[in-house]
Each structure stands twice: as structure tokens, then as C-alpha cells.
Write a sequence for this structure.
């Protein structure tokens, strides 16, 4: 099954409500995200960053990255910086699919399974998993490579993804890239 690793909203300035709670969770998830990225790249699995544009409609992915790296929380962005082979899709809402070219890109790549990591488990990850499921894509969510704001809602979101979307929920180290 051809896979793609999708990194959701990790290029972030953390200048928003609930950022303090989110950053605590990001710090815990970051090592797993970094290892997942390294494994995907070594296996030549496409890595696609899908990121909010923070309402800056004239921005492009380079500007989004530069802004995050020049901010006070660059330490959370630098380890997951896109490399030259990474693909980048800008989004404006919670789902990675909502009015983005992602579905077309995944079809062009022949993707059958998406591996979702990043933030926020109970928001963007959950809605993206649902949208992937309704597009008949297999969904994997490495539970230690997603960050949340509210722990109880994140646990519920992971249960919903497993039960309602037949998503594979597992540790990042168990994600197979075959």
C-alpha cells in the first residue's frame, strides 16, 4: 500500500489562544515526529506538510516557515523543517483536504494510505482523518507523534478515529512504511 506522511500544522508561531497548553504537548510529541520524518525520508515515502497560512493570503510556504523560525518558539519548528524533497500545501481551515489541492496531489502520487502526525489531535488531525476516510484512504495516526490542547478530548479523538474511521492508532515506532 503506497503511503504518504502528512505533517499537519507543525510550522507554527504559537501566537494564539491555548498555545501554552499546546506547546507542552508539542514538546512531548516532537521527538517521535522527528524520528517518523527520518524513517519516512529514508524509505522514500513522500512527506507532505499541510499547514495553516494564519490568514496571510499573500504568503507562501517559505514565508510561513521563515516567520515561524524567526519567532520565539523556533526550537519547536527547526527539528521538523521541511527538506528540499518535501511537498507543501497551504490550508485555511481545520481539515487538510478542505479547499486544498491535497486530494489531487495524493491521487497523482498513487497514495492509498495517509500517516497523519502533527497538531492538534482533537481538531485538525481528527477532521483530516475523517476527510481521508471518506475519500477511501487508509488512515494511520501515530499517537505519540500528535499534539493536543486538551488531553481528554485528544484521547476521545483517537478512540473516534480508531472506531469510526478504522484508523490504525499505534506508536510512531510501529508505523510501517511499506
Amino acid at each position: 500500500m503506497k503511503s504518504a506522511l502528512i505533517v499537519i500544522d507543525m510550522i507554527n508561531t504559537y501566537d494564539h489562544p491555548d498555545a501554552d497548553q499546546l506547546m507542552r504537548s508539542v514538546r512531548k510529541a516532537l521527538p517521535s515526529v522527528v524520528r517518523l520524518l527520518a524513517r519516512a525520508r529514508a524509505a522514500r515515502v513522500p512527506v507532505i506538510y499541510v499547514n495553516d497560512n494564519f490568514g496571510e493570503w499573500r504568503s507562501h510556504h517559505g514565508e510561513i516557515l521563515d516567520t515561524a523560525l524567526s519567532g520565539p518558539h523556533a526550537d519547536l519548528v527547526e527539528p521538523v523543517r521541511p527538506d528540499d524533497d518535501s511537498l507543501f500545501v497551504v490550508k485555511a481551515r481545520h481539515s487538510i483536504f478542505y479547499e486544498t489541492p491535497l486530494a489531487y496531489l495524493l491521487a497523482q502520487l498513487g497514495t492509498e494510505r495517509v500517516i497523519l502526525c502533527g497538531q492538534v489531535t482533537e481538531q485538525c488531525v481528527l477532521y483530516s482523518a475523517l476527510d481521508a476516510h471518506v475519500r477511501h484512504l487508509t488512515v494511520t495516526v501515530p499517537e505519540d507523534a500528535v499534539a493536543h490542547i486538551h488531553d481528554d478530548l485528544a484521547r476521545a479523538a483517537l478512540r473516534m478515529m480508531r472506531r469510526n474511521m478504522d484508523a490504525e492508532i499505534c506508536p510512531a515506532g510501529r508505523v510501517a512504511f511499506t
